[in-house]
Design brief:
The structure is a homodimer. Chain A is an alpha/beta fold. Chain A has 14 helices and 12 strands. In chain A, the strands form 2 sheets. In chain A, strands 2-1-3-4-5-11 form a 6-stranded parallel β-sheet. A 6-stranded mixed β-sheet of chain A has the order 7-6-8-9-10-12, with helices on both faces. Chain A binds a DNA duplex through helix 1, helix 2 and helix 4.
DNA sequence: TTGTATGCGTTATCAC
DNA sequence: GTGATAACGCATACAA
C-alpha cells in the first residue's frame, strides 16, 4: 500500500511554491523568479542546473494568479459569446483560441446562451477576474456596459456586430458585399422574387445591416423582393407568411427564392419546408443562407460561407495590438464571404408542374 | 509621497482597490472586506451606507485573483473539451455552465480541437491558474496526466469517457442500454442486418463500449450484424465498405440498417448516402445514430438523444461535492438515452423495387 | 463595532 | 551574479 509520500494532511498535498523551490535549490526566490522569466543570462550555469532540478523534483508550476497580481497582467482575455449553439460562434472561437495560443493569452470563454442577463453577469465577472481585454459577440449589451471596460483601460473588440454609441475595433463579415453576392447569384439563376428572412433586429447590428443590404441590392437590380421577420421562439406567423408567399407565387407563377439571414433561420425554414413539401423540398423551393452550416451540404443548400476562423484571429490580433499599447483610432475589419453554390439554387422548373 | 492620484498616462485609469474604497469611505480595509463577504451583521448601518456609497462611486470590483490568492480558492473550474464542433460538447457545456452559475463557480473552458497536444497544454495551463477542479472530456489524455491533479488534491470528473487506469467520478450516457435500445428498435422494425459504424477507438472508451454493446445486443437477438470502423480524416475505405455491404444486401435481398456511433459519423455517412442515392437517400437506406443533432429532424433520421444537459450538470455537482470535502469512493453516473424515432427507420419496401 | 498587522505567491528594487 | 525585502489586493487573527 502506498501512503503517497506522507502528506501531512493526506488530503491536499499543497502545490510547491517559489519558496519551496528556492529552499530545495538552496538559493533565494529571486533567482527562481529570474529563471522563470528567462533572465537566464545572469545566472551561473551551476545555479541554473540546481534550479532546474528543484523545479522538476517538486513539479513546480508558477501560480498565474500571484503572478498576475504582482505584475498587473494575467494574460487572461475575455471572450463573450452570445450563442455557442450557432456554429458560427464555435468557428470564430477556434480562430480566437489559435491566436491566443500563438500570442500567449488564455481565453476566458463566457457563453451567454442567448440570455441578456447572462451577458451582463459575465461581463461583470470578467472585470472581476481582471482580464486584460475582451472580445465581445453579444446579443444585447449596451454601450454603457462596455464603456466601463474602455474607460478602465481595457480594450474591447467587437465581433460580427457593433454596439450603438460605442466605437471600438470591430471585425466581422463584409455584410453588404456578402448579401449582394448572394442576391446577385439568385437573380442570375433566374429567380425573380427573393424573400429575405431575418430575426428581429433588436440590438444585433448585423441583422439590420444585412437586411438593408438586401433591400439595396434588390432595388439596384430592379428585382422583386421582400423581407419576412421571424422570431425563432415563435416562428408560426413568419412561417405562415412564407407559405402564403410561396402559394401566391405558385399561382402567378413566379420563381421565388428564400434567403435566410443566418444558419439558425435557415434551419428553421428548412424544417418547415421539409414538413410541407417532403424530403424533396429542395426541388420545390430554393433556399439560400448566410453561414455554411454542417448540414448545408446534406440539404444541398447554397450558402455564403463566412471567414469565421479569420474573424476570430483578427479579433485577437486587434486586441493584442491594443494591449501592446497601440493608440490609433478604432478600426474596422470587414472580411469577404464566399459563395458556395449547391443544387438548391440551380434553376428550377417553373412551379406549375 | 502620493503622486499616484494624477494618472500619469491618463490612459488606464487603474481600477479601484479595497484600499481606495476604505479611504473613500473613511474607514479601514477590514470593514470593506467584511461588507464584501456578507458579514453584514457586524457593521453599523451608518458605516455600511458609507461603504456602499464609496463602492458605487468608485465602481469597485473586488479582484478575484487577489482574493483567490489569499483564501486558496478562486472559484475557477477547468472544463476540458475535446471537440466543440460536436454539438454534444456544446450541450454538455450548457449544463456545466448552468450548474457553475448556480453554485458560484466560473468555468475555465479549454477547447482542444481534437488535438492531443492541446489537451496536454491546456491541462498544464489549468494547474497554472490553480483551478479548484476539472471536468474532462478528452480525446487522448493518459492516466499520468490526470494523476497530477488528483494527487495535488484537485478533483477530476470525467465526462462521456473514462481514462484507462484512472479512477474518478465519471458521468455519461448509459451506453449499453442506449445501444440496445436502438438496436432492438431496428430489429423490431424488421431490419435483419445492422451495420454499426464507429471511429477508431483509440483512447475513447465510449466508442469501445458502444461497439461492444452492439455486438452483445445483436448476438442476443440472433440478428446479423457487423462493424465498420471509419476514420473521419480518411473516410474513403470505410465508405467503400459500406457501399459494398449495401450492394450485397440488395442482391440478397436483405433489409439492412446503418447505425452510426455518434453524430460526426452520422453526418459523414449521410453525406455519402446523399451523394450516392440523391436527395431521397433516406428512403433507400435506413440510418440511425447516437446523438440527436440539429439536422437529424431535417434528414428524418432516427436517433438516440443523449441527456447532455444533465450530464453537464451532474459533472459539476460531482465536482462540487468533492470540493466541499466529500471523501467517498469514485462514483459513476450513467444517464439513459431517449429514442427519437423518425422516418428513416420505418419499414422500407424491400430493396428490389 | 472597528481597525492593525500579517501573509497568500510572485515580481521589482535595491543592496551586496 | 545573487539575495533580502517590499509591494500587488485581499482576508483574517488579533487587538482596541
Amino acid at each position: 500500500m502506498h501512503e503517497e509520500q506522507h502528506p501531512m494532511t493526506s488530503a491536499a498535498a499543497r502545490r510547491a511554491t517559489i519558496t519551496d523551490v528556492a529552499r530545495e535549490a538552496g538559493t533565494g526566490k529571486t533567482s527562481i523568479s529570474r529563471y522563470l522569466n528567462g533572465e537566464t543570462s545572469v545566472l551561473s550555469p551551476e545555479l541554473r542546473e540546481r534550479i532546474e532540478a528543484a523545479i522538476a523534483k517538486l513539479d513546480y508550476r508558477p501560480n498565474q494568479m500571484a503572478r498576475g497580481l504582482k505584475r498587473g497582467r494575467n494574460r487572461l482575455v475575455g471572450m463573450l459569446l452570445a450563442d455557442l449553439t450557432n456554429p458560427y460562434s464555435v468557428e470564430v472561437l477556434q480562430g480566437v483560441e489559435a491566436a491566443c495560443h500563438a500570442l500567449g493569452y488564455m481565453p476566458l470563454i463566457c457563453h451567454a446562451a442567448n440570455e441578456i442577463d447572462m451577458e451582463r453577469r459575465y461581463l461583470q465577472l470578467l472585470t472581476t477576474y481582471r482580464v486584460e481585454g475582451v472580445i465581445v459577440n453579444a446579443l444585447g449589451v449596451k454601450e454603457e456596459l462596455l464603456q466601463t471596460f474602455s474607460l478602465g483601460g481595457i480594450p474591447v473588440v467587437l465581433v460580427d456586430r457593433s454596439v450603438e454609441g460605442f466605437v471600438t475595433d470591430m471585425v466581422g463579415l463584409d455584410n453588404p458585399e456578402a448579401v449582394a453576392l448572394a442576391t446577385r447569384h439568385l437573380v442570375e439563376e433566374g429567380f425573380d422574387d427573393v424573400v429575405f428572412i431575418v430575426q428581429p433586429f433588436r440590438r444585433v447590428s448585423s441583422r439590420r445591416v444585412r437586411e438593408a443590404a438586401f433591400r439595396d441590392t434588390i432595388g439596384a437590380l430592379g428585382t422583386k423582393g421582400s423581407t419576412i421577420v421571424i422570431d425563432l421562439a415563435e416562428a408560426a406567423p413568419a412561417l405562415a407568411a412564407i407559405d402564403a408567399h410561396l402559394d401566391a407565387a405558385d399561382a402567378n407563377p413566379q420563381r421565388v427564392a428564400l434567403f435566410a439571414a443566418n444558419a439558425p433561420v435557415a434551419l428553421r425554414v428548412a424544417l418547415h419546408l421539409k414538413e410541407r413539401y417532403g424530403a424533396n423540398w429542395q426541388q420545390r423551393v430554393a433556399l439560400m443562407s448566410i453561414d455554411d452550416s454542417e448540414w448545408a451540404e446534406l440539404a444541398g443548400m447554397t450558402t455564403v460561407r463566412q471567414p469565421t476562423y479569420d474573424i476570430g484571429r483578427r479579433a485577437v490580433e486587434f486586441l493584442h495590438e491594443r494591449l501592446e499599447g497601440a493608440r490609433m483610432p478604432a478600426r474596422e475589419c470587414l472580411l469577404p464571404g464566399e459563395l458556395v453554390v449547391r443544387s438548391s439554387t440551380r434553376r428550377k422548373q417553373s412551379p406549375g408542374t
